[in-house]
Amino acid sequence: MEFNNYIDHTLLAPEATEEQIERIVKEAMDNNFHTVMINPYWVEKVHLLLKGSSVKTACVIGFPLGANTTKIKVAEATDAIENGADELDMVMNIGEMKSGHLDKVEQDIQAVVDVCHQNKRVIKVIIETCLLTDDEIEAAAKIVAKTGADFVKTSTGFSTQGATVHAVEIMVQAVKGTSTAVKASGGIHTPEDAQAMIDAGATRLGVSHSLAIIGKA
């Protein structure tokens, strides 16, 4: 199948150079990927480079640990929006999730969802499935859906494991009947990996090996 429009073409390495950022922007435009996903510092540059194309600018918030205060996440999201971000992928407060403080997790997410939706931006919430039990994955996905976020996302790609079909299936069931979709990210390296995630119910893929997945590498 055609994977191109599923792909958030991603470069989040701390050592990513300006030249590498420019290269992934060109790759995204040449291949009609959905977004270019970068760290907040690069948003303004990427937004300008993508002007006139159908590719969106996306960035991460509270990345990769999710342990910033809510106030900082909101400020980071606001700054990214002002710099031209169309889509934002925030990391939930994983420690509070593991503590069972679901109200605090929800409040943190809701604050960022609100600023994004007030500005008509897409917001995805990373729950870092590799650090959660199956029950916690289900509970986190339900919290994300309750806040009205556009996507619940598996992984940062910076922890112990990326997306798994099992986690995606749990998330899909948890958000069934809501407006929240599922994004799989981390460890998706081949067309087979991508197809497995889509078959499990993911409608967006966070990928750094995008060209390999579409057969161009």
From TrEMBL:
BP-aspect Gene Ontology terms: 2-deoxyribose 1-phosphate catabolic process; carbohydrate catabolic process; deoxyribonucleotide catabolic process
Annotated localization: Cytoplasm
Cellular component GO terms held in the UniProt record: cytoplasm
Catalytic activity: 2-deoxy-D-ribose 5-phosphate = D-glyceraldehyde 3-phosphate + acetaldehyde
Domain of life: Bacteria
Short name of one Pfam family: DeoC
EC assignment: 4.1.2.4
Family: Belongs to the DeoC/FbaB aldolase family. DeoC type 1 subfamily.
Protein name as annotated: Deoxyribose-phosphate aldolase
Species per Swiss-Prot/TrEMBL record: Limosilactobacillus fermentum NB-22
Lineage summary: Bacteria, Bacillati, Bacillota, Bacilli, Lactobacillales
